[in-house]
Task: inverse folding
């Protein structure tokens, strides 16, 4: 274990928390909040942000503003060039303010400052990509219906979208959704996680500066069980996009049934890393360590289950453990840190509970398994269990921490069966030098994203989303804009329509 306490900080800790308002109809407001929520930095245990704890009245006000902006405002009705211009200006402002955004992200989530910078700049790139998609959005035509009929398929923005986002990648996940929603012409009510609302509110300020009309984006803070629930239930919202746990995703779906909202869900994963005997084991081991340690394993696409051919199981396990011991864990404000703090006390206890469960179930702990002692901060040793069977809880449930399970297989079909043997289907990685093996595995694994000989790679061009209980719908790519549109089919009669009633 390489616990990095190197003193290479370029930012000091704040001496007092930053105070935020909510953003409704283009104005900063405390809304109906009677109390403030203070966010402590999980890595340093100092107060870093303070938010109004909003309620149902604020949801009503924000939805009314978004409704007005959609039904009577310019946003949906203007040309896509206007929307693209605002998105591009926003991207430029994100770049200009990237260090301030990255610092807030690190202080609230506990992730390394270098990683936050990468995510903020990556997010700017997604805003730029979505600006192009705003102008590329189009429908279809059917000129093959005979001389007298022309068919058109048009796309229209779905309306007011409720957007509920989680705490693991607050700014990046927002960028995978919000600019696409805006590109389609929709208006939005955003509810970030109460733990990490800072960068979403900072973005609201940048959107205003970029010329976004009032009411098009509204940001509410407050508890998910109140504000998130009210958004999911609201009958003036046309679609809800939710990212988070499968449990709350299910609640959101039930709440959305009231007015039959369109729904987009990105939920949990239990993603396999399938390693065949002919794989480049050094490359696979490095990617497996990255895939489970990145963001301290609090990542919906973490490759948390290694499914490996028995002939290379031991060698791969040794390589993984040896690399894991070199990962630099510690103060997220240190420039050299690779893995920071777990984001929340409740969550680290949950992860430790799974580690205990793994021991009790008879899996063999080969690496880690405990907290790293630190004066402050919630650091966990990256943990590896071998001899894990598919029925164990640690192989089935999303742990959302740096805990890796290793299960051996003997035959190709068994590898595929194990890879698919969870209720999830978000992502998978396949390791083989053989084209036939990799492509057959790609075709048979049920997951929305598959990586071959790499992991957690790629940009906004390709869609992301899940099979099975990992979600509904897709984000990013052209699909990411289309997701927030309704299709309208238009048949146009050319020439005289044959009469039905004889005259
Ligand atoms: P949640 O699903 O509770 O939180 C996700 C978002 O939903 C947050 O903005 C939260 O707000 C909001 N929310 C909470 N309750 C409701 C509700 N009743 N209606 C609408 N929105 C609501 O995730 P947790 O934070 O509890 O994390 C638990 C587990 O979920 C993790 O351990 C992990 O397994 C999974 N998860 C998966 C993510 C992914 O990217 N797929 C992301 C985060 C978690 P608030 O935080 O303010 O309560």
Result:
């Amino acid at each position: 274990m390489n616990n990095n306490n190197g003193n290479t900080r370029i930012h000091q800790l704040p001496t007092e928390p930053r105070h935020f308002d909510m953003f409704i109809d283009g104005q900063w407001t405390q809304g109906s909040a009677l109390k403030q929520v203070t966010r402590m930095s999980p890595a340093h245990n100092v107060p870093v942000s303070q938010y109004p704890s909003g309620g149902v009245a604020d949801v009503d006000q924000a939805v009314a503003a978004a409704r007005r902006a959609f039904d009577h405002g310019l946003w949906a009705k203007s040309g896509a060039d206007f929307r693209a211009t605002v998105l591009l200006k926003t991207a430029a402002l994100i770049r200009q303010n990237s260090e301030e955004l990255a610092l807030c992200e690190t202080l609230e989530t506990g992730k390394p400052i270098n990683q936050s910078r990468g995510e903020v700049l990556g997010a700017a790139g997604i805003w730029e990509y979505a600006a192009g998609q705003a102008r590329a959005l189009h429908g279809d035509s059917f000129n093959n219906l005979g001389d007298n009929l022309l068919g058109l398929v048009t796309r229209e923005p779905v309306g007011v979208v409720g957007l509920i986002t989680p705490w693991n990648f607050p700014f990046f996940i927002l960028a995978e959704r919000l600019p696409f929603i805006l590109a389609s012409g929709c208006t939005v009510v955003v509810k970030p996680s109460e733990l990490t609302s800072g960068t979403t509110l900072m973005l609201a300020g940048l959107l205003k500066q970029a010329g976004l009309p009032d009411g098009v984006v509204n940001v509410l803070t407050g508890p998910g069980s109140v504000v998130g629930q009210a958004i999911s239930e609201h009958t003036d919202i046309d679609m809800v996009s939710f990212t988070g746990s499968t449990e709350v995703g299910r609640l959101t779906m039930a709440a959305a049934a009231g007015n039959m909202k369109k729904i987009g869900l990105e939920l949990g994963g239990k993603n396999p890393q399938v390693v065949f005997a002919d794989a480049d084991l050094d490359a696979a081991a490095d990617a497996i360590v990255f895939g489970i340690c990145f963001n301290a394993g609090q990542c919906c696409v973490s490759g948390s289950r290694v499914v490996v051919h028995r002939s290379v199981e031991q060698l791969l396990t040794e390589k993984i453990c040896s690399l894991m011991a070199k990962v630099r864990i510690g103060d997220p404000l240190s420039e050299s840190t690779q893995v920071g703090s777990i984001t929340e006390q409740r969550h680290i206890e949950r992860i430790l509970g799974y580690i205990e469960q793994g021991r009790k179930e008879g899996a063999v702990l080969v690496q880690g398994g405990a907290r790293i002692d630190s004066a402050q901060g919630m650091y966990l040793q990256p943990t590896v269990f071998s001899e894990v069977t598919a029925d164990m809880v640690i192989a089935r449930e999303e742990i959302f921490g740096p805990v890796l399970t290793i299960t051996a297989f003997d035959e190709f079909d068994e590898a595929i069966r194990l890879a698919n043997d969870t209720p999830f289907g978000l992502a998978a990685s396949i390791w083989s030098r053989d084209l036939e093996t990799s492509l057959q595995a790609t075709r048979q694994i049920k997951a929305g994203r598959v990586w071959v000989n790499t992991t957690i790679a790629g940009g906004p061009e390709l869609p992301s989303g899940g099979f099975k209980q990992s979600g509904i719908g897709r984000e990013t790519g052209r699909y990411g804009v289309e997701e927030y549109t309704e299709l309208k089919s238009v048949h146009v009669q050319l020439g005289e329509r044959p009469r039905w009633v004889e005259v």
Observations:
- The mean pLDDT is 96.
- Residues 164-168, 191, 193-195, 223-225, 228-229, 232, 243-245, 248, 251-252, 266-268, 300, 398, 400 surround NDP (CB under 6 Å).
- The longest strand covers residues 149-157.
- The chain has two domains: 18-267+470-488, 272-452.
